[in-house]
Amino acid sequence: MEQRNPRLRWLIVWTLAVIWVGIILGRLSYLQLFCYSDYLAKAQRQQQRIFEISPMRGTIYDRKGHELAVSLPMDSVFADPAEISDVGMVARLLSGALNVPAEDLETKIDEAHTPVRLARKLSPETVQRISDLNLKGVFFQKENRRVYPQRELAASVLGFVDVDEKGIGGIEYSLDKQIRGRPGRMMVMADGRRNWYDRREAEADPGASITLTIDETIQYIAEKELARAIEDTHAKAGTVVVQDPDSGDLLAIANWPTFDPNNAGKYPDEDRTDRAIASAYEPGSTFKVITLTGAIENGVASPNELVDCQEGQILVAGRLIHDWKKFGVLSVRGILANSSDVGAIKIALRLGAPRFYDTIRAFGIGQSTGIELPGENHGLLRPLENWSANSIGSLAMGQEVSVTPIQITSAISAVANGGVLYRPRILREIRGQAPPDGDPAPTQATDSRTAATMRDLMEGVMIEGTGKHSQLDGYTSGGKSGTAQKIDPATGRYSRTQYNSSFVGFAPVNNPAVTILVVLDSPEGEHHGGQVGGPVFKRVAGQVLAYLDVPHDVPPSSDVETAQNLRSPAREAAPHEGDPDSGHARFANAVAKASKVDGSAPTVAFGDQAVVVPSLVGESVRGVTEVCSKLGLAPTLIGNGVAVEQFPEAGAQVLKGSQVTVRFGRPGELENVSARKAGN
After folding, report:
1. What's the rounded Cα separation, in Å, for the pair 167 and 45?
2. SS3 assignment, position 568
3. Residue-wise pLDDT tens digits, 637-671
4. Residue 404, exposed/middle/buried by CB under 10 A (0-12, 13-18, 19+)?
5. Would you call 131 exposed, middle or buried from its count of C-beta atoms within 10 A (0-12, 13-18, 19+)?
6. Is 118 a residue whose pLDDT tops 90?
7. Residue 359's CB: how many other CB atoms inside 10 A?
8. How far is CA 485 from CA 251, 389, 610, in A?
9. What pLDDT sits at residue 201?
């Protein structure tokens, strides 16, 4: 028994040893197989410190290649505590250069065991001051800083970035993924005593540059004139939009108040809002263009048809609506020119709610435009089944519906271009990337014949209506004013003192190059859209058309004098509403200007430069343009329809390049013109 004891003891010892080793191996296996990733991560956190290096954001250009936003390499300053022997001294020296309390810098360095960033994106002057200190353990690392060289120009469109170069607003936000690129990294390695021994860098991949549809010069014109309007009217806010009606390209989006994206954090959110896409408002009388378009397209109204406007009041579903002025009988043309609410309502009642709703939807109202900017407001158009009995009366004059400036601009562009509704575009190109699948196909908002009629009616607004003080010099134009009461938040009713005043138009009439919208929020004193928005339209349009080198389609006043003496006595009286002779008066005035006041026949020209003026009467606008182009003549086109009068007359000899003025009207006017000439 005693001999067995040593063997038993050894057996017990070996058994315990095997169990102990098994436990150790099991634990090691568990740690290696199941906990490896966790412990590796902990080790890396202790041994490594990673700094993200912001990538070089792509440059943002205007349509002409001018830089609107660029990224510049800037120095950020770091401190390595392992190489700094006297932290307090370094902190005191850096405090003066960085304008940061020495205590804060000392605490930051003391608490760090690996290199720590002390300040970001320093100015060259600050970098030089720190370099001159020649401090051991203090070094620089390049980072990028976003710079907007034009400061406030197009700020709401561009947006801005945060300190980490991430897009916050505007196109910087909506295309941040493409513009920002891929961040780089700087990894710092430390040993067991937390001494830094290695540093590795992974370069950042730069972002893609983009080109906008904005034109820097047109944007400047729009912002300049908007600022002038704000100063003149003391309006709370305002927006000017300039669009190419033939493509949907937005050439300018100006907002006020505005901000400097280089220091965006210093401005309130209201100043950074892109009101053109985010702020919806009741359009008021500018909406009458859509009302009349629907009626004319559906055959329930015609331009020269007379409508009794009932001395300025109408009862709709028990609601008495008063016009802004007591009008009697007006033509449909006159309803738009004089902006009669009662006239528009009576026409809308003829059209009926279903067809009116379809017309509004066809112009994109109450729907997202799909513009490449964040925060778009869809506006408000209630479904047809939710209309009340008097909704049609409100909608006819631009109430009970809200639109954004971009929506109403695009809708009027559809009238200007022949009835095609394009998606408004702000993005022209992403450089270095495959082009997108393509913009959504444009839709037909109205037919081309109706669009031509509406252009003629809108030209009448400029000649004899609420836009007559905003006629352009050297260009025909069409437009419509709008004066919409704002809702008083305190009462929930329409305010008697606060208005959204607007004016929208295009030019030239027969071949529009631009559509321009002006909206002023709560101007003080005069508040009618034609009075406060119209002059802004005139100034912006005049400068933009000249900048785009759009040919004049009527003689500019700077080249000629007025010639009222050429009018026959019968024409001195104001033409009756809808009378085609109103166009004749314009023609006579243009002829007088072209002939330099005295009304004499053009000088007879001989030689190779002589051109015999052909008969253009009866030709279409396109036909006249083609004939004049082949002969080297410069046509000035007035009105729409077929050519009914021309100057110089057929058979006259003129020099190549001479101006030929042609008035267009209804085919029936040809007989009237012939009779008038025979009588003379």
Report:
1. 29
2. coil
3. 776 678 888 888 888 888 776 778 888 777 777 66
4. buried
5. middle
6. no
7. 22
8. 29, 21, 59
9. 61
Q: To which H or E segment does residue 531 belong?
A: helix 529-532
Q: Which of 13-22, 49-58, 355-364, 618-627 has the highest mean predicted lDDT (pLDDT)?
A: 355-364
- Say which amino acid occupies 112: A
Residue 607, Cβ neighbours under 10 Å: how many?
A: 6
d(CA 348, CA 460): 20
Going by C-alpha positions, the residue among 243, 263, 262 that lies closest to residue 254 is 243
With a CB cutoff of 8 Å and minimum separation 6, the contacts of 230 are 237, 238, 256, 520
Q: Mind giving me the DSSP string for 193-222? A: T--EEEEEEEPPBPPPPEEES--HHHHHHH
Phi, psi of 677 (to 5 degrees): -65, -35
Contact 234, 218 (CB under 8 A): no
676, amino acid identity: R
Q: Identify the CA nearest to 500 among candidates 415, 405, 413.
A: 405
pLDDT score of 183: 74
pLDDT of residue 633: 77
The 3-class SS string of 110-160 reads: HHCCCCEEEEEEECHHHHHHHHHHCCCCEEEEEEEEEECCCCCCCHHHHCC
Residue tagged 């002779």 (tokens): 581
SS3 318: coil
pLDDT band at residue 539 using 50, 70 and 90 as cut-offs = very high
| Residue 348 Ramachandran class (φ > 0 left, ψ -120 to 50 alpha, else beta) | alpha
CB-based contacts of 634: which residues, under 8 Å, 6+ apart? 551, 628, 657, 658, 659, 660
Omega of the bond prior to 261 within 30 degrees of 0, cis?
no
Q: Which of 614, 563, 619 is nearest to 588 (CA)?
A: 563
| Strand arrangement of the beta sheet that strand 659-665 belongs to | 634-638, 659-665, 642-647
Residue 471: exposure state from Cβ atoms within 10 A (0-12, 13-18, ≥19):
middle
- What is the Cα–Cα distance from 169 to 374, expressed in whole angstroms? 7
Residue in this structure with the two tokens 């959504």, named with its chain if needed: 440
- Tell me the one-letter amino acid at 509: V
CA atoms of 43 and 35, how far apart (whole Å): 12
∠ CA 639-642-647, nearest 5°, is 70
Question: Can you tell me the distance from the alpha carbon of 1 to that of 7, in angstroms, rounded to the nearest whole number?
Answer: 10
Tell me the pLDDT of the chain averaged across its residues: 84
Q: For residue 437, give both structure tokens.
A: 């699948």
pLDDT one-digit tens code per residue, 327-376: 999 999 999 999 999 999 999 999 999 999 999 999 999 999 999 999 99
Q: Tell me the mean pLDDT in the region 583-591.
A: 62
As a whole number of angstroms, the distance between CA 515 and CA 241 comes to 8
Residue owning tokens 């295309």: 175
pLDDT at 40 over 60: yes
Question: What is the Cα–Cα distance from 399 to 402, expressed in whole angstroms?
Answer: 8
Q: Dihedral sign, CA of 249, 252, 258, 259? A: positive
What residues contact residue 468 under an 8 Å CB cut-off, 6+ apart? 461, 462
Angle formed at CA 502 by CA 496 and CA 506, multiple of 5 degrees: 160
